[in-house]
Amino acid sequence: MLCGLLNTGENNAVSLAIFDLDNTLIAGDSDHAWGEFLVEHELVDGAEFARANDRFYADYQRGELDIDAYLAFALQPLSRFTPDELRTLHQQFMATKIAPVMLPKAQALLQKHRTAGDFLLIITATNRFITGPIGDALGVDDLLASEPELIDGRYTGRATGTPCYQGGKVTRLHAWLEETGHSLEGSYFYSDSHNDIPLLEEVTHPIAVDPDEQLRQHAETNGWRVISLRDR
Q: Is 22 noted as a catalytic residue in this protein?
């Protein structure tokens, strides 16, 4: 179960190791992969949904995603299914779409920080329905994600709160810091995307992971570490 720590004196000595998820800890985009999964299983209007899914992903890669429009698109299918149906679908999704893109070097990196006593936090624009079980599988301590609205145990198809995207990640992280008592002193953030530059600039140790070209250039200009979790 992913949960934050309460504000205790022990937290003051713990460094935060923060990770983006998609194309950082896994070799793919879980949000886009969920859309592909829905199309392949004929759970949505295949051709139209696939085109929109690809278009939103391209917008994200360019840094031009309308996050509110995307969340409305991505969350609507969740409202069609019961919790039990969604649980079964997600188990199939994990087996067919996520397990193949798990990265051994990412798991080794997580273990390195775990052994050092760091607090492991994933912060991702992808919604919690998709990413919660992935975070559990990776063994992180907590996860911040875009939040789908739940009423009486059913997804409404709408989002709630601040989307966890670009500057929204900074907003959500600072709220979490205030709630938990953690500090950014000595913190790390690993990401592949130029969309995460606002948060990379907040931490002590910004690290670009298999970065897109914009982030690579920004990292080189600013003297940030650049690593790969995919090379052998």
A: yes
